[in-house]
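dude i think i finally got it to work??
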Amino acid sequence: MAALEAPVRTCIGCRTKGTRNSLVRYVLADDSQTPVPDEAKQLPGRGAWLHDDPKCYDLASRRRAFARALRIR
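look at this
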């Protein structure tokens, strides 16, 4: 039997793939349009995945990737 592989996600900043454990999930805060980190990776709603690196966060902000990934205006 083959070993189970960790789920793979794509960072919305640098657009590289990584395991679910190596990325931080962001979701929308209650009643706002502000993305907040989902530490437990279990909050309801659409999530956007990002490396825990300021460069990736800056790239995602500049490209407006949060709005596209979370489907907000």
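The first strand starts at residue 8 and ends at 10.
im so relieved honestly
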